[in-house]
Design goal:
The complex is a heterotrimer of chains A (746), B (288) and C (165). With 288 residues, chain B is of the alpha+beta class. Chain B folds into three domains: 48 residues, no CATH class; 115 residues, Uridine Diphospho-n-acetylenolpyruvylglucosamine Reductase, domain 3; 106 residues, CO dehydrogenase flavoprotein, C-terminal domain (Enolase-like, domain 1), CATH 3.30.390. Chain B contains eleven helices and 14 strands. The radius of gyration of chain B is 19 Å and the shape is globular. Chain C has two domains: 75 residues, Ubiquitin-like (UB roll), CATH 3.10.20; 69 residues, [2Fe-2S]-binding domain (DNA polymerase, domain 1, Orthogonal Bundle), CATH 1.10.150.120. The longest helix of chain C is centred in the C-terminal third of the chain and has 15 residues. The chains are: A alpha+beta (746), B alpha+beta (288), C alpha+beta (165).
Chain lengths: 746, 288, 165
């Protein structure tokens, strides 16, 4: 059968021979070139913009400004951002559009005959600004001295919050034999997908404003474009060509709306030519959102036998200039603070806070990695304080089927946290064998200093909801068309909108369809990622796509088979899958069942640290996940390995510097993602494949889970090696030395 | 996108010297591999009006090892250094620096003269060359001169080279057998990362006495520099752990590191101490 | 100014500005868009091509620096059938989004041309100038090991699949 087969990805040949076309590679007949102009002002009011000099630059064709945006607002879950900041807006916007709240707020699109002319036009724009006070971080925002979105009537920069009130805190503290308190700081993370943003736009044969771009949800892109252009959805077409990585970073809008505006304006001038825009790396890093930086002040109580009895936490999440998906990220962050543990007494207040910095938004894990860092660091500290084995302390607190979580409802059925934890314990059993016995020589290139090199181990575990949650409407559509000349069909075509961001979704769709139809996978054709040919799939995010698409494809196959049996030719089956809905949690108590289903993960790390240089080398790492039944192990393992290394980057090397509202290292030379030399010597990826009772074929989800427990596992290993707890990261040599020095290790 | 410039591709050294002397009314900037200059031009850190490419003159590239000396042509690439059997015996620290230099593609293009002329304090090749007492040969239409590498840099992004001069060679004396030269760098990633602290050590020992000590420090001051007072603490002495620690501490005093996006001054100072002590210990251990 | 070079075995002449980078000559004038631009600063390796057989980054070179040279891009690597490295990346799933892949393959092919029996450490040293954000590199190393075996005329070892279900 096709499910469980190591099918090689269908787009492999085109990606190894250079013929795959990413948005910047698409051949165009006589294209125009667009340069998107950033405000370059973290916080300022635009006084005026004079485009006359720019328009006069030879080769400049036209300039798109706020005046060209019918509805000058966007936002995936709330309209709080102007499409283009400008003074001559239409006034139809929920948000004042003359204020730049972020250095990469967009102010104009210069369209020209050449890239050079577009850049020259951009440089010739004359813009007058009145600078407003910069709100550089959470601390400044919480004073409330300067309001980033003062028009919204709230006297504070806190714009979204959640609560949990469970049990009785006084009782909790009274029952606690040990209390662990800490303040954790989590850094920004940049997606650093290798393909910087690029797009092509034009008016297609049917008069639709068409945008070819790399994104994660074509129908959401279409909806946002249609809203800003104030036209019906079906007058907009979005197509995804090859996508050069995403990781959540393409979930929001970058070039989508402005390139649609560009195509329309060019067309209105009677020019029938496509427009192309390609961002460089600096524009990419400055111009799209990041994983949220955050601070959590927390205090946990536990009994001598390791039972957690109280969790108290305040979560401060820097949303940056606009909401993006911050309200949703905050929800995940909030309910994951106590991890997969049962806790009777809980108080948590979580808030999303506006600052005039780069927006926070979706990034693999969606709030869970930040929560996981807090939770797993706390439980590791409790184990340490009580002299308990870190596996054992977890066993004593794990949520089982039916156990109420901190939101007073159980996790969705099919909880496998315990099996995942035990598998990780078994896999690391052999780690008692010391590094020396294995003839491991860390830091081999460094002149030796045996006394400086220490080794340690650590673990972390976690879970992640699969699918949109907190009541956000879920859906996934699929269409299947069967073909064949005889009584039995012998081929099929799957029509699906789901984005193949590199994870191999399109190959997996074909495998699922083949399995459902009893066809060889080679007999399944694919029509993918075009709003003109497929229904809404929802996004490639939230570890949801295989789960949701599996339901939709399985049902569409049945409908198509019935149509075939009924004699329809071609026999088509369409299905819109809507899972059982999730709940928004109660605003006062936090009670509710926000999730549909979950995946589980445990990670263990053995590392060496040179306490004099602060350098860390990961010697061994085990990642145990339960992704449920795996459609394609070849793809699944690759995705998990990639997530683990991305998590190690988050933990060790990736440091985005944001100073006075500006990113000062928007380059891959200063923002360091892991290279091949940084990967662990041994990485073991284990997938338990315990079927999800609700999943199609028993599938759960894969994409995000390995991102969650890495940082706390590494930090526990550093503690094991040095006796020092570090409550912040990335663990650059400099930061490690700062903490070791403070602890008297010279 | 780079801003515009005039470009020449002379095929003789004389042609280059004419052009950089004022060939088109403005002195041309020499271009070798381009791995630094073109990145700087793209970032508008430098915007030359005229550029002269050296790649048409094969004799500018090559490694000559005679009985007494090693001489590198200015367009010798980092890969050439890494692949040289001869340098493996008379410039080990330079080969080590070449190994830690960028990635394969950058090593295939970047040149030794380019790595000097770009004037980066974080240069990887300069610390080992400086510790080897290398000299830079500068030629212009009016003649040639030789400058010790440790006198070549005069300040941040400043050096003694006049715009009409071209680096035409780098040379050093082959080391006696009773000597060791070492290099190590600390960076924030294992491969292809800009140096946070680089230290090169060159030591000669005779009869249990340190006869020569050279310590060159990278990325911890406006230029690569030698820790000369630390060196002088070692020469003529029998090294002990205490003396090595003291010299390493002295080396930190001679540096003037700054905070930047890669590391704090505090970390850099500490890194000098650790690397210098370890390299000196290793060198002394090998020679005694 | 006029630049003449050989690209994928074909003689090419083009009139370029001095400031034209090699990568732009390849992508824009010759439509060889398999050579990708990821940073335009020499840090990511997506633009790697071979210049006289050696991997270089085409984003930090002027087109004119390739005058008279023999350039091979990802489109020129296959010779009727996929090159062993290309085959390895597909067989061993050494790619996900695929954007870094052409550069990664060109680096690997350049390294293997000089050393067809690289150790794991040598493979890593060969591709440390190429960044990948999707795979975590493990399968890339396996893909290159597969290619090395093929190029030596050996049968690539069956991988030890990590899954244990």
């Amino acid at each position: 059968m096709s499910i469980g087969a190591r099918t090689k990805r269908f787009d492999g040949p085109s990606k190894v021979d250079g013929t795959a076309l990413y948005p910047g590679d698409i051949p165009l007949d006589n294209p125009l070139h667009a340069k998107v102009v950033f405000s370059n002002r973290p916080h300022a009011r635009m006084v005026s913009m004079d485009t006359s000099s720019a328009s006069a630059v030879p080769g400049v064709v036209t300039i798109v400004t706020a005046a060209d945006v019918p509805m000058n607002e966007y936002g995936l879950t709330m309209f709080d951002q102007p499409v283009l900041v400008g003074v001559d807006g239409t006034g139809r916007s929920a948000v004042p559009s003359d204020i730049s709240r972020w250095e990469a707020d967009q102010i104009a699109v210069v369209i020209a005959e050449s890239i050079e002319a577009a850049v020259a036009g951009a440089e010739a724009l004359v813009v007058a600004w009145e600078d407003l006070p910069i709100v550089p971080d959470i601390d400044a925002a919480l004073t409330g001295d300067t309001l980033v979105h003062g028009y919204n009537g709230k006297p504070t920069n806190v714009f979204y919050d959640y609560k949990i009130r469970r049990g009785n805190m006084a009782e909790g503290w009274a029952a606690a034999d040990v209390v662990v308190e800490a303040t954790y700081e989590m850094p920004h993370q940049e997606h650093a997908y290798l393909q910087p943003e690029a797009a092509v736009s034009y008016i297609d044969d049917e008069g639709r404003v068409t945008v070819k771009i790399a994104g994660q949800w074509i129908h959401e892109d279409r909806e946002q474009i249609a809203h800003a252009l104030d036209i019906p959805d079906d007058e907009v077409r979005v197509i995804y060509p090859a996508i050069g990585g995403a990781f959540g970073g393409r979930e929001d809008m970058t070039l989508q709306i402005v390139m649609a505006l560009a195509a329309r304006k060019v067309h209105a001038l009677g020019i029938d030519r496509p427009v192309r825009s390609v961002w460089n790396r600096e524009e990419s890093i400055l111009g799209h959102h990041k994983r949220h930086r955050a601070r959590v002040v927390t205090k946990w109580g536990a009994t001598f036998d390791g039972k957690i009895v109280a969790v108290d936490a305040d979560v401060y999440m820097d949303a940056g200039a606009y909401n993006y998906t911050s309200n949703k990220v905050l929800g995940n962050f909030h309910v994951a603070i106590a991890g997969p543990y049962a806790v009777p007494h809980v108080r948590i207040d979580s808030m999303a806070i506006y600052t005039t910095t780069v927006p926070g938004g979706a990034f693999r894990g969606f709030g869970a990695p930040q929560a996981g860092f807090v939770c797993e660091s706390q439980i590791n500290k409790i184990a340490d304080a009580l002299g308990l084995d870190p596996y054992e302390v977890r066993r004593r607190n794990l949520l089982g089927e039916g156990d109420p979580t901190i939101t007073a409802r159980p996790l969705p059925i099919g909880i496998t946290m315990e099996q995942v934890l035990e598998e990780c314990a078994t896999r690391t059993d052999t780690w008692r064998e010391s590094a020396a016995e294995r003839d491991v020589r860390p830091f081999a290139s460094l002149p030796p200093s045996d006394s400086a090199v220490r080794t340690g181990t650590g673990i972390g575990i976690g879970f992640k909801n699969v699918g949109f949650s907190f009541g956000f409407p879920e859906r996934c559509e699929a269409t299947i068309e069967l073909g064949g000349d005889s009584d039995e069909y012998d081929s099929a075509t799957v029509f699906h909108a789901g984005a193949d961001v590199g994870q191999g979704a399109h190959t997996v769709f074909a495998q699922m369809a083949a399995d459902a139809l009893g066809l060889p996978v080679e007999a399944v054709g694919r029509e993918m990622s075009d709003t003109a040919t497929s229904g809404d799939s929802g996004s490639a995010s939230a570890s949801r796509l295989t789960w949701m698409a599996g339901h939709a494809i399985g049902e569409a196959a049945a409908v198509a088979q019935k149509a075939w049996g009924d004699g329809d030719r071609p026999a088509r089956g369409h299905y819109r899958y809507e899972p059982p809905s999730s709940e928004m949690i109660d605003p006062d108590t936090g009670e509710g069942a926000p999730f549909i289903t979950c995946g589980y993960v445990a990670e263990a790390v053995q590392l060496a640290i040179d306490v004099e240089t602060g350098h860390i080398e990961i010697l061994r790492m085990v990642c145990v996940t339960d992704a449920g039944r795996v459609v394609n192990p070849l793809l699944a393992e690759g995705q998990i390995e990639g997530a683990v290394i991305q998590a190690l980057g988050y933990t060790l090397t990736e440091r985005l510097v944001v100073h006075d509202g500006r990113i000062t290292n928007p380059r891959l030379s200063g923002y360091l993602i892991p290279g091949v030399a940084d990967i662990p010597r041994d990485l073991e990826v284990v997938n338990l494949e315990l079927p999800d009772p609700q999943g199609p074929w028993g599938i759960r989800g894969i994409a995000e889970m390995p991102m969650i427990p890495c940082a706390p596992a590494v930090i526990a290993a550093v503690h094991d090696a040095t006796g020092v707890w570090i409550d912040e990261f990335p663990l650059t040599p400099d930061l490690v030395r700062k903490h070791l020095r403070a602890a008297g290790i010279t | 996108m780079l801003s515009g410039f005039e470009l020449d591709l002379p095929d003789t050294l004389v042609g280059v010297l004419d052009l950089i002397a004022d060939g088109r009314g403005t002195p041309a900037v020499p271009l070798a591999g381009g791995t630094s200059l073109i990145v700087d031009m793209r970032a508008r850190r430098t915007m030359p009006n005229a550029v002269v490419w050296l790649g048409k003159i094969p004799e500018l590239r090559g490694i000559q090892v005679t009985q007494d000396h090693v001489r590198l042509g200015p367009c010798t690439t980092v890969s050439d250094i890494l692949n040289s059997d001869e340098l493996a015996g008379s410039g080990v620290s330079l080969v080590r620096a070449a190994e830690a230099f960028g990635g394969q593609m950058v090593r295939n293009a970047a040149t030794v003269a380019g790595n000097i002329a770009c004037n980066s304090p974080a240069s990887d090749l300069v610390p080992p060359l400086m510790a080897l007492d290398a000299e830079v040969i500068l030629e212009s239409r009016s003649g040639s001169r030789t400058v010790a590498l440790d006198r070549y840099f005069t300040g941040y992004k400043e050096d003694v080279r006049r715009t009409d001069e071209l680096i035409t060679g780098i040379s050093w004396k082959r080391q006696e057998e009773s000597s060791v030269d070492l290099f190590h760098k600390l960076a924030r990633r294992k491969g292809d990362a800009i140096t946070v602290v680089g230290v090169a050590v060159n030591m000669a020992v005779s009869d249990g006495t340190c006869m020569r000590a050279r310590i060159a420090l990278g990325a911890v001051a406006p230029t690569v520099l030698r820790a000369k007072r630390a060196e002088s603490m070692l020469e003529g002495e029998t090294l002990t752990p205490g003396l090595i620690e003291a010299a390493a501490r002295q080396a930190t005093e001679e540096a003037s590191p700054i905070d930047d996006v890669r590391a704090s001054a505090t970390y850099r100072r500490h890194g000098i101490q650790v690397l210098t002590a370890r390299l000196l210990t290793q060198a002394w251990g090998r020679l005694t | 100014m006029e630049v003449s070079l050989t690209v994928n075995g074909r003689n090419v002449s083009s009139d370029v500005e001095p400031r034209t980078l090699l990568v732009h000559l390849l992508r824009e004038d010759l439509d060889l868009t398999g050579t990708h631009v990821g940073c335009e600063s020499g840090y990511c390796g997506a633009c790697t091509v071979h210049l006289d057989g050696k991997p270089v980054k085409s984003c930090t070179m002027l087109a004119v620096q390739a005058e008279g040279a023999d350039i091979t891009t990802i489109e020129g690597l296959a010779n009727g059938e996929l090159h062993a490295v290309q085959e390895g990346f597909w067989e061993r799933h050494g790619l996900q989004c695929g954007y870094c892949t052409p550069g990664m393959i060109m680096s690997a092919a350049g390294m293997l041309a000089e050393n067809d029996s690289p150790s794991e450490g040598e493979i890593k040293h060969g591709i440390e100038g190429n960044l990948c954000r999707c795979t975590g590199y493990h399968n890339i190393v396996k893909a290159i090991e597969y290619a090395a075996a093929k190029m030596r005329g050996d049968e690539p070892a069956e991988p030890e699949w990590e899954v244990s279900s």
